[in-house]
Write a structure and sequence with these properties.
With 403 residues, the chain is of the alpha+beta class. The chain has ten helices and 19 strands. It has a seven-stranded mixed β-sheet with strand order 1-2-3-4-5-14-6, sandwiched between helices. Strands 8-9-10-11-12-7-13 form a seven-stranded mixed β-sheet, sandwiched between helices. The longest helix is centred in the first third of the chain and has 15 residues. The two termini are 27 Å apart. Bound molecules: coenzyme A. Coenzyme A binds next to strand 4 and helix 2.
């Protein structure tokens, strides 16, 4: 089995092979929907080719920036289009492609790789850990009276909402999304190319969408909600807002939509203030909680020193990377929001697999949860609590970009 990099000339065969792996046909976009594969970077693709010359496996990567706790933006490989033909499964094709791809990310100077997993059992063995989660909030409109604000009113009501068609507001969406993602740990950039090609029109979908755009009192767009309605249900694919006031105004807009009995907000964090803003907190039901962004560290000291930290302290981490056959013990020292991470021989506080480090890296999973699950080993009883305090993020990580 040969694993070879792709070029632009492989585009058609690549797209055909990955669709066959998923048992699908490349769809023809309807209305203003984009094609998900139009933004593939063919200089970052891989094809697995069987001895007789037939392509049997695909993998690719996008060049994204990931926002870390504390606001640093770092380049990551966004792994995508992973598939092996049903006729060639379970013979190590994916494993060979993963090995090739991780080496390639390192060669390009990268230290983090991320992906969305079609099935949760595939990627742990390659060193990826689930790092963020996403949920759906379903609100029965007849129960959705707004609670009187206690304390400070989130919204001043001075902004405005305009409803547009998705194909008529690409530049607005791009600018709003960019402001949002820079301040949201766990969020990924959507390169300009995505918007240009329609691949970034939220979401990549075959059906047309309306977009409610919120503008602040000065007329600057600061939020949008892309939505469609069917059979009395209004589904919001993504609500992007640079602050809580813009989010609240957009939520009021969709919850005020006529001829709708139910509003489904997709891709919210499970703990979102919206439920608390309703007079009946049970009017909103959280469902469909699932993992979203998976993170893989390829250079532990670089990754740990890149993010911001919110508590001082020290921790010795013994990190095993069985897929790459690597192992390292590091002293992590945090002072005034910044970390140093150096090799050490000191006795470890925690022993963990690199996939578990991926899960706790953005602050979305507490190390103590993985200690209790038996994945991370704490060598003294206080170490887990110390790790929780260190790894926490000021803003909970969240990602809703689909790729
Ligand atoms: C998932 C997929 C790429 C795996 O490819 P593959 O070439 O069969 O994988 P490998 O043979 O390298 O498998 C490596 C290991 O992972 C395990 N594995 C692979 N896919 C798995 C799955 N879906 N569930 C559980 N285990 C899986 C294999 O059993 C094997 O384990 P072992 O080393 O203990 O024997 C392939 O089944 C596929 O294309 N599925 C449909 C498309 C898809 O879901 N792609 C992933 C998109 S995120």
């Amino acid at each position: 089995m040969e694993i070879r990099p792709t070029t632009d000339e492989d585009f058609e065969v690549f797209v055909a092979t990955v669709h066959t792996a998923f048992g699908q046909f490349p769809e023809t976009p309807v209305g203003d929907g984009g094609r998900w594969w139009s933004a593939l970077e063919m200089d970052r693709g891989l094809l697995a080719v069987a001895p007789e010359g037939k392509p049997v496996g695909t993998a690719a990567a996008y060049s994204f920036d990931l926002t870390l706790p504390g606001g640093a933006l770092v380049p990551v490989a966004g792994v995508t289009a992973v598939g092996v033909l049903p006729s060639h499964r379970r013979r190590g094709v994916l494993s060979a492609m993963m090995r090739h791809q991780l080496a390639d990310v390192r060669e390009r100077g990268g230290f983090l790789s991320v992906l969305l997993a079609s099935e949760a059992r595939i990627y742990g063995r390659f060193g990826y850990g689930p790092a963020t989660s996403t949920a759906r909030l379903t609100v029965e409109r007849h129960k959705a009276q707004w609670a009187a604000a206690r304390g400070t009113a989130v919204e001043d009501g001075a902004g405005s909402v305009e409803v547009l068609r998705r194909d008529g507001c690409g530049e607005i969406l791009e600018a709003v999304y960019d402001r949002y993602r820079r301040a949201q740990p766990g969020a990924l950039s959507r390169p300009h190319r995505w918007w240009d090609l329609g691949a970034g029109q939220p979401p990549v979908a075959r059906t047309p969408r309306y977009v409610a755009v919120h503008r602040d009192a000065d007329g600057t767009p600061d939020g949008y909600a892309s939505y469609s309605t069917e059979s009395g249900t209004l589904t919001v694919d993504e609500t992007i807002a640079v602050d809580d006031a813009a989010f609240t105004a957009l939520a009021r807009y969709v919850l005020g939509h006529d001829l709708v009995t139910k509003v489904v907000f997709r891709h919210l964090p499970a703990e979102h203030p919206l439920r608390w803003q309703l007079d009946d907190p049970r009017a909103g039901e959280v469902g469909g909680v699932t993992d979203w962004l998976w993170v893989r560290l390829l250079d532990v000291p670089r990754a740990l020193t890149a993010r911001g930290w919110f508590a001082d302290g020290e921790l010795v981490l013994d990190v095993d990377d069985p897929f790459l056959g690597e192992h390292g013990r590091y002293l992590l020292t945090v002072r005034d929001g910044r970390a140093e991470c150096v090799p050490t021989d000191r006795r470890p506080d925690l022993s963990l697999d690199v996939r578990d480090l991926g899960s706790v890296y953005l602050g979305g999973t507490r190390p103590s949860t993985l200690v209790r699950a038996g994945h991370i080993r704490a060598h003294d009883p206080a170490a887990a609590a110390r790790a929780d305090a260190l790894f926490g993020s000021d803003v909970a990580p969240h990602c809703l970009h689909w790729f």
